[in-house]
C-alpha cells in the first residue's frame, strides 16, 4: 500500500539546486566502521532522498535465499518509509549478483545499466535520481582491477554531469581489505564522509600571488591515526587527479577547516609529497600553527609547501 | 674494587648521584669536583643546602660562587614532590647541563617522602640534562642512608664517582608514584582507534578545567592523543594502523601540570612498527614537557607531562 508520505513520480519537490545538493558533492563515499553505522547513515540518506521525491536505485547484498523483503532496508533499521517505497516503486533494490548478470560483468555493461536506470526514472517523471550501493567487497588484488573500479566510478560522474543524479557509495571498512579501502578513498577523494573528517574537491583552480597553486582539495574535521589510512588513500587520489587536470600537477590541500591533525596524518602528507612524481608538489593552505609544527616535526620535504595565505579562488 | 670516575661523559640525560658525607667539609670536598665540571662546561649550578653548607661552599668556590645559585631548600622545593620536580625542571636549559645539590634533612615537613621523591626524580626527570646530587650525612637516619644506597646509580666518594651496586630502579610497571598527583580527573579504557576522538574530547574538558586554552590546549590534547598511540604501538607508515588492544588512560592535573599515563598491557610490536614508532616518539617531545616510555613484563607504559 502506498501512503501519502511516499513521493509519487512527478511530484513537486524542492527546487533543482537544492535537489542537487549543491552544499555536498553529488558523488559521495560514506565510510562506516560497522554494519550498524553503515545502516544508520544510509537510512538517513535514504529518508532524505525519499523526502526529496527522488527515484532511488539501491544495490546491495542479500543473504542466500533471501529476497529484498528480507533486506535490512525493509526492516526496522531501514528508512521509516522503506517498505512502502519499495512497494510503490520509488525505491528499487537489486542484489549484486543480479547487477553483475545484467551488465554482463563488464564496466561498459554497468554504465549501460546505470544509464538505463536514470533515463527510465526521468521518463517516469521523477524529479531526480539517487543511487546507492553497499560496500562491494572487491578483492582489489591488482592495479588492473583498481583501474577498472575507477573507470566504473567515473561512469557515475558522467551521468551526474547530464542528469539530476546523486550517488552515495558505501564503504564498510570491516568488510573490505586494505587495498579496497585505499582505492575506494582514492577514487572518491572528491567527496568523502568518514568518521570525524570529510573531504571534497573544491573549485578547479586556486591562485596565489598570480601563480596557479593547483586544484583545491578541501579537508575538514579531525584527522587522526584512525582515519589515516583513508585520508592517505583520498590524498593519493587527489594527487592522481591533479596530475590529470589542466590546473595541475600541484595539489592545493586546504586545511582551513581541519580542527585536529596528529602525527600519523602529518606523516601521511609528508610521505605523499615525498613519493609524488617529480614536478608535483603538495601545497598546504589554511594550516594552523599546530599543524605547521607537526609538519615540521615529521620533517616535511621540500615538495610539501606550506602557504602563508589562503589563495584566491579562480574557477577557470 | 670499583674504580673512580674522573671525567664523567654524562650525555644528555639525568645523572643521579648519592653523596654520603661525614661533615660539611667532607660534603664540600666530595661535591666540588662535580660542581666545577659543570661550571667549566658552561652549565648552571643550584646548591640547596643549609646555611652552614652555603658558607663553606662560598669559601671553597671563591669568585666562582657568584656563578652559583643558593636557593633555600624550602623555597626551592616547597613541601611536595610535584613542587620539587617542577622546580628542578624549571632550572634546566636545553644544550647545557644543570647541577642541583640537595641535602637530606631530619627536619623535612610533614608528609614529605624522600623515597617517593627519589623515585620520581629517577623517572620523571630521566631525559633532562641534569646532574642531581643528594647528600646524606653519615650521622643521618638509617632510612636516609638506605635510600641513598637504593635510589642512586652512582655514589660520590672521596675519589670521585663509583657505580652503586645497590641501586634498584623503580618498577617499570609503575614508573612514578601517583599519590602526590592526586586522583585522576580522567580515567578511561581506550579500546582502539575508534575511541581516539572520545579521548581527545574528554582530555580537552580536563585541560580546559585546568586552565588551558588556545594553542597550549591543543598541544596538551595532542600529547595525550599521541601517548595513547605510542602506548598501543600504533604503526605510522604508508598504511598506519590504529592502536591495538585495550589501554588504561589516566589523566591528572596537579601542581601546574597535566600528567598522563597510558598503560597498554597487550601492546605488541607491529610488523612495520619500529622505525615509524621511533618517529612518533621523536615527535612527541615537541608537544610536551616530558615523555617517558617503559616497556616491561606488564606491557608498555607511556607517561606525558605538560605544564599548565
- Percent in strands of chain A: 15-25%
The helix/strand series of chain A, from N terminus to C terminus, equals HEHEHEHHEHEHEEEEEHEHEHEE
Coarse morphology of chain B? elongated
Task: Kindly report the average pLDDT value of chain B.
Answer: 82
Low-confidence stretches of chain B: 1-8
Offer a concise description of the structure.
By secondary structure, chain A is α/β, with parallel strands linked by helices. Chain A has helices at 16-19, 35-52, 82-88, 96-102, 107-123, 143-162, 178-187, 225-244, 263-275, 289-297; strands at 27-32, 55-60, 91-95, 129-133, 165-172, 191-193, 197-201, 206-208, 211-214, 216-223, 251-261, 282-285, 304-306, 312-313.
Structure report:
The complex is a heterodimer of chains A (316) and B (308). In chain A, 47% of the residues are buried. Chain A has an eleven-stranded mixed beta sheet with strand order 3-2-4-5-1-6-7-10-11-12-13, with helices on both faces. In chain A, helix 8 runs parallel beside helix 9 (263-275). Chain A has ten helices and 14 strands. Chain A is of the alpha/beta class and 316 residues long. Helices cover 40% and strands 23% of the residues of chain A. In chain A, helix 8 (225-244) links the parallel strand 10 (216-223) and strand 11 (251-261). With 308 residues, chain B is an alpha/beta fold. Chain B contains nine helices and twelve strands. In chain B, the strands form two sheets. Chain B has a seven-stranded mixed beta sheet, with helices on both faces. A five-stranded antiparallel beta sheet of chain B has the order 8-9-10-12-11, with helices on one face. The longest helix of chain B is centred in the C-terminal third of the chain and has 18 residues, at 214-231. Chain A binds chain B through residues 33, 178, 182, 195-196, 222, 224-226, 228-229, 232, 260, 262-264, 267-268, 271, 288-290, 293-294, 297-298, and chain B through 192-194, 196-197, 200, 215, 218-219, 221-222, 225-226, 229, 234, 236-243, 276, 279-280, 282-284, 286-287.
Amino acid at each position: 500500500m502506498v501512503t501519502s508520505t511516499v513521493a509519487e513520480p512527478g511530484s513537486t519537490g524542492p527546487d533543482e539546486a537544492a535537489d542537487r545538493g549543491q552544499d555536498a558533492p553529488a558523488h559521495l563515499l560514506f565510510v562506516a566502521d560497522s554494519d550498524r553505522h553503515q545502516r544508520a547513515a544510509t537510512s538517513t540518506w535514504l529518508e532524505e532522498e525519499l523526502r526529496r521525491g527522488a527515484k532511488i536505485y539501491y544495490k546491495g547484498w542479500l543473504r542466500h535465499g533471501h529476497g529484498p523483503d528480507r533486506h535490512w532496508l525493509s526492516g526496522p533499521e531501514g528508512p521509516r518509509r522503506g517498505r512502502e517505497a519499495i512497494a510503490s516503486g520509488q525505491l528499487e533494490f537489486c542484489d549484486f549478483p543480479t547487477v553483475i548478470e545484467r551488465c554482463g560483468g563488464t564496466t561498459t555493461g554497468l554504465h549501460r545499466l546505470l544509464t538505463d536506470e536514470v533515463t527510465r526514472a526521468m521518463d517516469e517523471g521523477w524529479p531526480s535520481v539517487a543511487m546507492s550501493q553497499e560496500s562491494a567487497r572487491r578483492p582489489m588484488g591488482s592495479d588492473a582491477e583498481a583501474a577498472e573500479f575507477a573507470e566504473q566510478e567515473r561512469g557515475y560522474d558522467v551521468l551526474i554531469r547530464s542528469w539530476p543524479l546523486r550517488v552515495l557509495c558505501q564503504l564498510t571498512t570491516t568488510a573490505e581489505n586494505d587495498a579496497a579501502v585505499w582505492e575506494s578513498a582514492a577514487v572518491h577523494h572528491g567527496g568523502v564522509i568518514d568518521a570525524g573528517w570529510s573531504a571534497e574537491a573544491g573549485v578547479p583552480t586556486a591562485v596565489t600571488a598570480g601563480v596557479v597553486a593547483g586544484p583545491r582539495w578541501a579537508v575538514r574535521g579531525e584527522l587522526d591515526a584512525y582515519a589515516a589510512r583513508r585520508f592517505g588513500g583520498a590524498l593519493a587520489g587527489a594527487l592522481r587527479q591533479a596530475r590529470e587536470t589542466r590546473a595541475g600537477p600541484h595539489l592545493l590541500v586546504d586545511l582551513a577547516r581541519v580542527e585536529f591533525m596528529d602525527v600519523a596524518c602529518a606523516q601521511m602528507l609528508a610521505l605523499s609529497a615525498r613519493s609524488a612524481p617529480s614536478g608535483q608538489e603538495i601545497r598546504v593552505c589554511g594550516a594552523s600553527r599546530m599543524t605547521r609544527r607537526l609538519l615540521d616535526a615529521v620533517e616535511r620535504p621540500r615538495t610539501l609547501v606550506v602557504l602563508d595565505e589562503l589563495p584566491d579562488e579562480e574557477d577557470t | 674494587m670499583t674504580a673512580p670516575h674522573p671525567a664523567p661523559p654524562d650525555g644528555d640525560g639525568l645523572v643521579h648521584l648519592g653523596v654520603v658525607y661525614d661533615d660539611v667539609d667532607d660534603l664540600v670536598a666530595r661535591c666540588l669536583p662535580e660542581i666545577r665540571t659543570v661550571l667549566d662546561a658552561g652549565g648552571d649550578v643550584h646548591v640547596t643546602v643549609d646555611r652552614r653548607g652555603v658558607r663553606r661552599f662560598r669559601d671553597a668556590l671563591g669568585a666562582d660562587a657568584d656563578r652559583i645559585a643558593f636557593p633555600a631548600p624550602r623555597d626551592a622545593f616547597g613541601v611536595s614532590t610535584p613542587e620539587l620536580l617542577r622546580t628542578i625542571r624549571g632550572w634546566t636549559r636545553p644544550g647545557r647541563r644543570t647541577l642541583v645539590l640537595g641535602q637530606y634533612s631530619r627536619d623535612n615537613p610533614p608528609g614529605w617522602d624522600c623515597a617517593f621523591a627519589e623515585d620520581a626524580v629517577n623517572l620523571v626527570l630521566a631525559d633532562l640534562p641534569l646532574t642531581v646530587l643528594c647528600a646524606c650525612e653519615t650521622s643521618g637516619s638509617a632510612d636516609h642512608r638506605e635510600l641513598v644506597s637504593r635510589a642512586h646509580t652512582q655514589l660520590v666518594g672521596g675519589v670521585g664517582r663509583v657505580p652503586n651496586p645497590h641501586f634498584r630502579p623503580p618498577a617499570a610497571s609503575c614508573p612514578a608514584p601517583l599519590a602526590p598527583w592526586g586522583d585522576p580527573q580522567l580515567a578511561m579504557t581506550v579500546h582502539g582507534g575508534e575511541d581516539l576522538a572520545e579521548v581527545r574530547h574528554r582530555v580537552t574538558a580536563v585541560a580546559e578545567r585546568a586552565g588551558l586554552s588556545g594553542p597550549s590546549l591543543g598541544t596538551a590534547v595532542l600529547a595525550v592523543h599521541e601517548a595513547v598511540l605510542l602506548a598501543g604501538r600504533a604503526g605510522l607508515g604508508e598504511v598506519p594502523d590504529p592502536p591495538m588492544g585495550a589501554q588504561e588512560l589516566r589523566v591528572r592535573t596537579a601542581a601546574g601540570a597535566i600528567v598522563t599515563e597510558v598503560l597498554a598491557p597487550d601492546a605488541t610490536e607491529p610488523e612495520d612498527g619500529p622505525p615509524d614508532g621511533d618517529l612518533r616518539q621523536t615527535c612527541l617531545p615537541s608537544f610536551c614537557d616530558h615523555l617517558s616510555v617503559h616497556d616491561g613484563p606488564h606491557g608498555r607504559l607511556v607517561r606525558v607531562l605538560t605544564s599548565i
